[in-house]
Amino acid sequence: MVDLLLGLQWGDEGKGKIVDVLTKEYDIIARFQGGPNAGHTLEFDGIKHVLHTIPSGIFHKNAINIVGNGVVIDPVIFKKELDNLKKFNINIVSKLLISRKAHLILPTHRLLDAASEASKGKAKIGSTLKGIGPTYMDKTGRNGMRVGDLEFDDWKTKYRALADKHEAMIDFYNVEIEYNLAELESEFCEAVETLKKLTFIDSEEYIFKAQAEGKKILAEGAQGSLLDIDFGTYPFVTSSNTTAAGACTGLGVAPNKIEKVLGIFKAYTTRVGSGPFPTELFDEDGATMGRVGNEFGATTGRPRRCGWLDLVALKYAVQINGVTELMMMKADVLSGFKTIKVCTAYDYKGQKIQHLPYNIESEYVTPIYTELKGWAKDLTKLTTAEELPPALNDYIAFLEEHLQVPIKIVSVGPDRLQTIRR
Ligand code: GDP
Ligand code: IMO
Ligand code: MG
Predict the structure, then answer these.
(1) Are 175 and 48 part of one and the same domain?
(2) Which member of 26, 165, 260, 347 has the greatest number of CB atoms within 10 A?
């Protein structure tokens, strides 16, 4: 039995927190796509942790954590993550397993990402510059290097051929980027040696066996549905399938083995990087969301753009993923707003529509809002659904009615304990 946990917006919905909260109910937590472009934050016992590639179940003794074949791994960032975990006494070799089929991010992939972005000027994607796009390009172009290659003595020959090709490609972009490849390569090789001390597995086989033994598996998504390479706001997306299908290809889970699809969203909307965002606010309300919600990227530190909840986009994500249960995060951030707005339709070239059109740039789309009453109550100390203020219950009921999926968790703060079940 496999459950999926997916971000339904433009990422940073709070996936790390919820995976950590749910891990005690699972035997295995498995990341299935993305790479160190992700920043998943967990908070407990007064400490904040940010994970990039390592699954968010790593702090629990009961669970095995798998980095699946769909993930792209930068050994250098991975090593830093491992270093940060050292003081927590986790048995990494037995608890963290890595798919041999996961692709490797080379230093030159990062440089190519930077060169590609620099060449685009104002049209840049706003990538996290972690080399994600170029690495997935090499994967689908059938040129990539995989974790399993590191088990063979000739991996450096493979590495050299690919890195040399990348260098020529960087020249092709004809942009100014400064780098010292020798330094980057020595850092990479050192990190590879650390990576090689970990346990590499045929993860699809491991997951088949676990399923046969009745183990409970939670697949942890990265990014969000609107950053999906097929269904997101292309080209302002990431380079993997962040939606439910990505768990099938990124882990080897058959579609008929998926049970629950847990969809996670913020009570409002945020986005980092470029691209259309119909409900984006440029006023005091948006600034308040950013300030109260501490909306800065966990990977890049960039301020996140903020706006009201977009139900047109959220419904689209619910449909694409087949979401069976919803989790609403950061409800506490909306406390104090007199009125809460929700986008329930778009004015698209003068016509009222309720689906996501091909183009959602602001010159085509204006959000149409429904206004609901806000609440003043501080939610951060609440522990039960009975304590939620009536106006928040009305907000939840409105969303459930619109989306036709129950909201099972309401999150009221970053800590593990600030989680209310309904
Ligand atoms: P992820 O990428 O989906 O794991 O999300 P991030 O970790 O990038 O961003 C979510 C941010 O919101 C983190 O700083 C979390 O600590 C924080 N957070 C999560 N849930 C809540 C919540 O309910 N309320 C508040 N105020 N912060 C939250
Ligand atoms: P988590 O898992 C938010 C965004 C980048 C950029 C676009 C492409 O923490 O939710 P990339 O580096 O993938 O080529 O960048 O996608 N992006 C994210 N935004 N959360 C993330 O991950 C993101 N990962 C990538 O800002 O707009
Ligand atoms: Mg994040």
Answers:
(1) no
(2) 26
Mean pLDDT of the chain: 97
Q: What pLDDT, on the 0 to 100 scale, is given for residue 298? A: 83
* pLDDT tens digits along 272-325: 999 999 999 999 999 999 999 999 988 888 899 999 999 999 999 999 999 999
Give the phi and the psi of residue 52 in degrees, each rounded to 5.
-115, -45
Mean pLDDT value of segment 102-117: 98
Ligand 3 centroid vs 341 CA: distance in angstroms?
24
> Is residue 40 among the annotated active site residues?
yes
Residues 147 and 59 in one domain: no
Beta strands at 217-220 and 325-329: parallel, antiparallel or unpaired: unpaired
CATH of the domain at 310: 3.90.170.10
Residues 169 and 305 both lie in one domain: no
> What residue ranges in 185-224 does DSSP mark as E strands?
199-201, 217-220
Q: How many CB atoms lie within 10 A of CB 178?
A: 6
403 token code pair: 């989306």
Which is the catalytic residue, given 139, 166, 266, 315? Answer: 139
CB atoms near residue 276 (< 10 Å): 16
Each residue's pLDDT tens digit, 72-97: 999 999 999 999 999 999 999 999 99
Name the phi and psi angles at 159, rounded to 5: -55, -50
388: how many CB neighbours lie within 10 A of its CB?
A: 20
